[in-house]
């Protein structure tokens, strides 16, 4: 990609990102760090040839999925790119592919295993690629909360709704308790359906998506939402608060989208005249309120593709995607909403060395890092996913 013809400006390095990227200077936050950017490429150039050869050797037996937040060095080998749900469905639509190599994070690979056939094996190139948001809702904690609702006599009227970004365990819990999975594209439809089934919604694990959808799309007040903190006794809520709430929001969030602040929005409006601020609904409520548009990853891509030449955008989502969109549209001024870099560190665990290793292992007849979901959990998770697919 030609950086010279683009209006893209790389956000400033934070100390952590400096270590990841190996260039720039940040003496204020990390004493002594000053790297002029002359380091060799992080990946051995031979790895491109090795990945190409291993993929060719596997042919139709392998299907590589690449999430939008993945690095370019990985995305170039993806047979299809997309958000987590689109990728899981793409995998299910390729029953002839024996191996699904999922360049994304753990919960996504689990969803792919749930939706694919018994003859297919899902591989995550680095098992450390988890999701901090999904990890914020652990089955034991959620079951404790549910027991509390049962003791209060409200469980029969509470419908659990979980965001796609949750573990298979949580999706299974939701399916077992007659709830539904949602994505950031269909959260309103899922909540409409849930409120037809009961009086209250228990929303997992992303408080921001739950709150933003309930308040901005469904007309609820902020006071209709309460925050259930699994680390406090009784979730930190009184029985009255739990009984009166329309939305019981789990105290989880995305560490990437949670970084954008109202100050980022103010600052970019001063810096870029006429800019339109476009953010993901995993951002905080005040940020979403201050933005001009809010939408899922696929929405963001469509909006930027359709934007007129010369228009200016500040985008609040993961940096790999924003950079890729900016470089694909040099006729538009696309900038990152924050002044400093903001990668999903767990997504970035998948790099070219891990992808090469996974593909070469498969060529050698070994299946590395297979992700499997037990049959019982998968059965109920499928119930909640099927309910999502049946949403009107
Ligand atoms: S961007 Fe946020 S929600 Fe997505 S994988 Fe990373 S931590 Fe999880």
UniProtKB/TrEMBL annotation:
InterPro entries in the cross-refs: NadA, NadA_sf, Quinolinate_synth_A_type3
Entries under Pfam families matching the protein: NadA (PF02445)
Iron-sulfur among keywords: yes
Keywords assigned: 4Fe-4S, Cytoplasm, Iron, Iron-sulfur, Metal-binding, Pyridine nucleotide biosynthesis, Transferase
Location(s), subcellular: Cytoplasm
GO biological process: 'de novo' NAD+ biosynthetic process from L-aspartate
EC number per UniProt: 2.5.1.72
Amino acids binding iminosuccinate: 67, 84, 163-165, 184, 280-282, 297
Family designation: Belongs to the quinolinate synthase family. Type 3 subfamily.
GO cellular component: cytosol
Molecular-function GO terms, alphabetical: 4 iron, 4 sulfur cluster binding; metal ion binding; quinolinate synthetase A activity
Binding sites annotated in the UniProt record for [4Fe-4S] cluster: 131, 254, 344
Name of this protein: Quinolinate synthase
Primary site of residence: cytoplasm
Physiological role: Catalyzes the condensation of iminoaspartate with dihydroxyacetone phosphate to form quinolinate.
Cofactor: [4Fe-4S] cluster
Leading EC class: transferase
Pathway it works in: Cofactor biosynthesis; NAD(+) biosynthesis; quinolinate from iminoaspartate: step 1/1
Cofactor binding note: Binds 1 [4Fe-4S] cluster per subunit.
Entry keyword Membrane: no
Reaction equations catalysed: iminosuccinate + dihydroxyacetone phosphate = quinolinate + phosphate + 2 H2O + H(+)
HAMAP family, A to Z: NadA_type3
